[in-house]
Every structure is written in structure tokens, then in C-alpha cells.
Specification:
The chain is built from twelve helices and 22 strands. By secondary structure, the protein is α/β, with parallel strands linked by helices. A seven-stranded mixed sheet has the order 1-2-7-8-9-10-11, with no helix packed on it. Strands 17, 18, 19, 20, 21 and 22 form a six-stranded mixed sheet that branches. A five-stranded mixed sheet has the order 12-13-14-15-16, with no helix packed on it. Strand 17, helix 8 and strand 18 form a beta-alpha-beta unit. Helix 5 runs parallel beside helix 7, helix 5 crosses helix 9 and helix 10 packs parallel to helix 11. It starts with a strand and ends in a 5-residue tail after the last helix.
Length: about 400
């Protein structure tokens, strides 16, 4: 796409990556691609806010050149050093040799180390401002949202927030703004983004939004560094972040399982029937046939997670292990868990899953486990349904 003016003399210079399907070392699926958003502020002292992923450096320079001679750029703002946003920095700095990098104190040594360079830098902290002419840049440090170096850039004259990774989505579309895009798709991808990246930092998200409110920052537009720009009603995504960070949930359960010869699968379907009969929305995922990133997005607003496995070598099936590892790292808040298993000559899966799910921070009652041996008989199927109904009856509202 060509540069798009999002505010007076402020241009989106992003790159649309239609083909990327995995992120963060293939730990996060991106079915709808993504964008790497960079912003050029044409002012008395032209300023570039964030760059793009390394392979797209030439495209970014070409876009800049359609608007201005790159040598005229005075400042390059680095809100976050991760290479999907700063990877093009060496190419940009080679083209703008007199520019000064503006970044947080925690970003500066990372830039030097990662890019093996010592470009001139201006270190900023929360409350610092930088006049570039008609516009003033105000900075807000945002450590661990989602790296220690992260910060936001705010333009009070335009009521524009440039928050890098916060409020973004992995979404590649040929339209740039929320009011030109399917909002349901945007929100689904924003939800998935939050669940898989920002979920462990909920308390910090709440604190940062509260800080922004207390600073009196008026926000008419949020332009993140991934996905589409929120211009019609940025309050939608701010409210969603507040809800997700606070651990707000629906009367909803997510059932995740793995099976060998179908016994556990029969249990899973029967438990699902019981949950829905008990008035609880429920979704079912066989983990070996599902995308873990999508499952975690569904867990974000669920109150209950039900995990089941066949037993092998006195343990749960290996296909479930990466999913449970993800939950341990993300540590969802205010959620119950329940466990079920099918076994042959010995048990063990329940005990091993219990240790993992408790390590992930879930609340697990001793009575919220169910194990059957060999294949489920009709009375076992009924027991599974009743188990699901009892779990639904134990719904814990906020």
C-alpha cells in the first residue's frame, strides 16, 4: 500500500505481510497475516515512529522517499526494540545519518548490543516531551507491555496514541481503519493477540491504563504497530483491555482433550453435553487437531477450562504438554479447571495433569476430576454428562 495520511501531515508507512502464518518462533499462529506499522510525522523536524521487520526495510525506505528525502528526518522513535518493529533500523539509520534515536533507558543498551552500533540517542521517560514543530511528542514508559523497553508515544495536538504492540492485532487487510474493516474480525484478532502475548501482564495493563487516564491524555485515535488503526471509537479496545486485564469472564467453558482409541473423546463429548445442558456455553477442542493459539484466545473470556487425556506410561498424552506449557507461562487469572481421563491397567494422567494445571494458577477442586477405566459404558457416559452439569452449576460469577 502507498502511504496513508491518518492525521494532518502524519502518515502510515506500514508493510502488509499477507503470508506470515506464525510468530514468536512459531509459538503463535497468524492465520490472517499481519502488518508492521511505521508512522512518519512531517513537521519542522520530520520524525519516524518505529520501523518495520528486517526483510521489509527497502519497502519502508521507498515509502518514505515518496514523501520526503530520508536525509531530512531528524528523529527516529524506537518504542520497542523487537525486530518486527526495529529490524529495519540499520537500513533506516544508514539513510538518515544525522537522525537521533529516541528511546527508553532500557531500550538503549539493547539497541547497541543487538545491532552492534552506537547511534546517537536521546533517552526519554514518562512525562518527557519533545517538540518537533507544530506537534509535541509525549512519552509514556510501558515496561513489560510486552518487553522491559516498551514505551508509548503520544501527540496531544492530534490526540493520537502510538502504543507499538499494545492494542494491536495480527491482521493483514487492504483497509487501514476500524470503520473500514469487519470489527468482529478485528476484535477476535485483538483478543487472540492479548491472550497469547499480554495475558501474564494484566496487572501492569490495568496500572498503565489508569496512569494514562490520570495523565489526562485525550485519545481520539490509537495507531498500533500491528494491524488496523482505531479511529472510529478507540474506547472499544481500551474497554476490552480493561476487561481482559481484570480477568472478566463469561459463563463459558473450554474443553480440551487428547485421545488414543476414542474413549477420552467419548467422555469429552458427553461432558460437553452436560455443560451445555447446565446452561454454560462450551467449546470443544481436540488439541492435536486444533491451533493452540486459537484455543488460548477462547480461554481468555472463559470461566472454566476442562482438560482430558488418555493415560500412557502413567501420564497424560504428550500432545497436551505444549498446551499446558503455554498455560503455565500465561497464567490466566480467575479461572477454574476440571480434569478427566480414561485409563487401562493403571492411572496417572489425572495426577500429572493436576500438577501442571495448578502450576498454571487454576483453581481445581478435588471433586472436579473424573476417571474411567477402559471404554466408557452407558453408565459412564451418563456420569460424564452429570459431571458436566455439576461443573456448569458451579459457575463462579465475578
Amino acid at each position: 500500500m502507498k502511504p496513508v495520511e491518518i492525521k494532518k501531515n502524519i502518515f502510515w508507512l506500514g508493510v502488509i505481510d499477507w503470508n506470515v502464518r506464525y510468530f514468536h518462533g512459531a509459538t503463535y499462529s497468524t492465520h490472517r497475516g499481519t502488518t508492521y506499522n511505521s508512522y512518519l510525522l512531517l513537521d519542522e523536524q520530520p520524525t519516524l515512529v518505529d520501523t518495520v521487520y528486517t526483510p521489509f526495510a527497502a519497502e519502508l525506505l521507498e515509502s518514505i522517499s515518496t514523501l520526503i528525502d530520508p536525509k531530512k528526518i531528524k528523529y527516529v522513535i524506537v518504542n520497542h526494540v523487537e525486530v518486527d518493529h526495529a529490524g529495519a533500523l540499520p537500513a533506516i539509520m544508514a539513510a538518515v545519518p544525522n537522525a537521533v534515536i529516541v528511546c527508553s533507558a532500557k531500550a538503549a543498551p539493547v539497541i547497541d548490543r543487538y545491532f552492534n552500533n552506537s547511534w546517537e540517542k536521546k533517552i526519554v521517560k514518562t512525562g518527557d516531551t519533545l517538540s518537533i514543530g507544530r506537534n509535541t511528542l509525549s512519552f509514556v514508559e510501558a515496561p513489560m507491555l510486552h518487553w522491559p523497553d516498551s514505551m508509548f508515544t503520544y501527540l496531544p495536538e492530534e490526540k493520537l496514541l502510538l502504543p507499538n504492540d499494545a492494542f494491536g492485532q495480527h491482521l493483514a487487510v487492504s483497509t487501514l481503519f476500524d470503520d473500514d474493516t469487519d470489527l468482529a474480525v478485528m476484535m477476535q484478532e485483538a483478543k487472540k493477540y492479548y491472550a497469547n502475548i499480554l495475558l501474564p501482564f494484566g496487572p501492569l495493563v490495568l496500572k498503565k491504563i489508569d496512569e494514562i487516564i490520570k495523565m489526562g491524555l485525550e485519545i481520539e485515535m490509537i495507531a498500533p504497530s500491528h494491524g488496523n488503526i482505531w479511529r472510529k471509537d478507540p474506547g472499544i479496545i481500551i474497554k476490552a483491555y480493561l476487561d481482559w486485564a481484570a480477568g472478566k469472564h463469561q459463563k463459558k467453558a473450554v474443553v480440551v482433550y487428547e485421545t488414543i482409541w476414542g474413549s477420552t473423546e467419548k467422555m469429552a463429548h458427553s461432558i460437553l453435553e452436560g455443560l451445555t445442558a447446565g446452561g454454560m456455553e462450551a467449546k470443544l477442542y481436540k488439541i492435536s487437531e486444533s491451533d493452540a493459539s486459537d484455543v488460548i484466545a477462547e480461554i481468555l473470556d472463559a470461566e472454566l477450562v476442562v482438560v482430558g487425556s488418555a493415560t500412557m506410561n502413567r501420564d497424560f498424552l504428550p500432545k497436551l504438554s505444549p498446551f499446558l506449557d503455554d498455560l503455565t507461562g500465561l497464567k490466566p487469572k480467575k479461572k477454574r479447571a476440571a480434569l478427566f481421563a480414561s485409563s487401562g491397567w493403571s492411572g496417572g494422567a489425572i495426577e500429572q495433569m493436576t500438577a501442571r494445571i495448578q502450576k498454571a494458577g487454576f483453581s481445581l477442586a478435588e471433586s472436579d476430576t473424573l476417571e474411567i477405566f477402559w471404554t466408557p459404558h452407558p453408565e459412564d457416559i451418563e456420569q460424564c454428562r452429570q459431571f458436566g452439569q455439576r461443573l456448569a452449576a458451579g459457575y463462579q460469577s465475578e
